[in-house]
Design brief:
The chain is built from 18 helices and 18 strands. The chain is of the alpha+beta class and 518 residues long. The two termini are 39 Å apart. The protein binds adenosine-5'-diphosphate and magnesium ion.
Length: 518
């Protein structure tokens, strides 16, 4: 389709046309079509290929979206929304994109075929989404840490992933190991208590403790310390700096400095050892070779850590970071754990079972970097789903919760034409189950009709195609994932439907824009 340019406007990027409604909604459909077939447990995979012919097979909505080389600005918008959904609740990205596409398709039809003004459609979407979220909230059930529903939520969330079953059991055991220790200010936050690291070519496992992807400072240090006294060091471990030496420094000065270096290093190491510490986690920026050698001589286990790791280790072992030499005299600086050791082959350091037992590490592996990345993302999805479910409850999965509120949304009476905007939200609510079932090889629409005439909580069994109570078979989703996805979809749909022209602009970088404002 050619754009009416009249030779007036500067042309835009290829494929971005002035006629906004078509160009933009096509872009949304194109993006949605790339991920919609991955939705649900029977979703198909995508083969991603980059320009250097690197390839990767993925079934994960966000991974696929983030790797697309989409240039259309509206396509990029969808990718950004998906990314935001991932950050906010960590699951439900494909759901959000599929609903957004449905809303835009239906909205465009209303505008084009029935001549409804876009602002009316947008207002209808706004009320519809708000109302649908309230209705979903009313359907919510609460779950507990030790109940069977925790297992169901994790399994449902991972059912579409590579090795979903295996990963679900890792996640569930990690969740239960940290348990209520992950509650902060009344709600669960597993970010602080479950670390997930990705490796290649080793066994998946859950470790009751912290695992650092590091090696000892020196290979001659002990490999393994039972019942270590742990110290976290932020001291200046390079007491004499080489940069102090000037070109014309006298030999005598150098000697004095070198002596000074030895004395100070010895003083530091001696005072560390005097506290009884035998496993030192070092977050200092530089470590003098002499300090390192002395630590080796004293048979101390030492490893470098990052500033972020300080927090984890400190909370887990009870060790207080030592910043000044004076701090070494304080009584409560050392932390404890049952065992600190390095696995030389996998280049991992384990700090197992600290005195404050509230950290668990899941190690996910894969045969290639990409598979391990994909499995790592899946594990995070599972943890996030559990967190959202524990904090805000669950609804029936497989698109069933959404489907069964349609009748109630319909009853919402809006004045005038906004009422038709509700249709947009209703088709989006229906689209999830339809897509999941289409992906499973059924006639989606037909199966949705069958589910709709079944009681609340019913959906379609993905294997037999028969109506089934989703609660009974344990297919459940976190409320928060559903409402966030619905809101995100509504946001995109509203912005896309409101645009009537795409225009080529001069510089829109934040800097240029702030200059024109001045
Ligand atoms: P998203 O990126 O949106 O999380 P997924 O591919 O993870 O997409 O699919 C999630 C959807 O699949 C949820 O609506 C969930 O209820 C549904 N689902 C998972 N397992 C089943 C199942 N066995 N039967 C029907 N629906 C399922
Ligand atoms: Mg998911």
């Amino acid at each position: 389709m050619s754009s009416p340019n009249y030779g007036v406007w500067r042309p835009m990027a290829e494929n971005v046309e002035f006629n906004a409604m078509d160009s933009n909604s096509n872009a949304v459909m194109a993006v949605a079509d790339t991920v919609r077939t991955t939705l649900g447990p029977k979703g198909l995979d995508k083969l991603l290929i980059d320009q250097a012919m690197n390839r990767h097979i993925s079934n994960d909505g966000v991974t696929i979206l983030l790797s697309l080389r989409a240039i259309h600005p509206v396509a990029r918008m969808i990718v950004e929304i998906a990314e935001r959904q991932e950050q906010l609740v960590g699951d439900g990205t494909t759901t959000a994109v599929v609903m957004a596409a449905e809303m835009i398709k239906e909205g465009k039809r209303l505008v084009r075929e029935l001549g409804v003004h876009p602002t009316k459609v947008v207002e209808g979407i706004e009320s519809g989404v708000r109302h649908a979220c309230d209705l979903l909230e009313k359907e919510t059930k609460n779950i507990t840490l030790d109940g069977v529903m925790l297992e169901q939520i994790v399994k449902t969330s991972l059912s579409s992933k590579l090795d979903g079953k295996q990963l679900a059991s890792l996640v569930i055991s990690a969740l239960r190991m940290v348990g209520r220790n992950a509650v902060y200010d009344g709600s669960f936050n597993f970010d602080k208590s479950i670390m997930v690291i990705r490796k290649t070519n080793m066994e998946d496992k859950v470790v009751n403790g912290i695992v650092l992807e590091r090696k000892r400072l020196d290979p001659e240090m002990p490999l393994d310390v039972k019942g270590p006294k742990i110290m976290i060091v932020k001291l200046d471990l390079k007491p004499v700096k080489e940069s102090w030496l000037k070109e014309n420094t006298k030999y005598q000065d150098i000697l004095t400095m070198e002596n000074d270096r030895l004395v100070k290093a010895k003083q530091i190491v001696d005072s560390i050892v005097a506290t009884g510490a035998n496993a030192v986690m070092i977050a200092s920026p530089e470590i003098d070779q002499v300090v390192e050698d002395l630590l080796v001589a004293k048979k101390v286990f030492a490893v470098r850590i990052s500033t972020e790791e300080i927090e984890h280790l400190s909370r887990y072992t009870g060790a207080k970071p030592v910043r000044l030499l004076e701090d070494l005299k304080k009584p409560d600086i050392l932390g404890n754990s049952r065992h600190v050791y390095e696995d030389e082959q996998d280049e991992l350091i384990y700090v197992e079972t600290g005195s404050n037992q509230n950290m668990v590490t899941i190690i996910v592996s894969g045969s290639t970097k990409e598979t391990s990345q994909e499995r790592w993302r899946a594990v995070l999805d599972g943890i996030n789903a559990a967190e959202a479910a524990l904090n805000s409850g669950v609804v029936a999965g497989g698109g069933s919760a959404e489907l069964h509120i349609i009748e109630k949304v319909k009853k919402l009476r809006l004045k005038g034409l906004e009422q038709v905007g509700l249709d947009v939200v209703m088709s989006a609510l229906e689209s999830i189950m339809r897509q999941i079932l289409t992906n499973a090889g059924f006639n989606g629409l037909e199966k949705v009709m069958a589910a709709r005439s079944s009681p609340e909580g019913f959906g379609i069994d993905i294997n037999t195609g028969e109506p089934v109570d989703m609660w009974k078979i344990g297919i459940i989703d976190p409320l928060l994932v559903k409402t966030m996805a619905l809101k995100a979809a509504g946001e995109i749909a509203k912005s896309v439907l409101r645009i009537d022209r795409n225009l080529a602009a001069e510089d829109l970088s934040p800097q240029a824009v702030s200059e024109t404002k001045r």
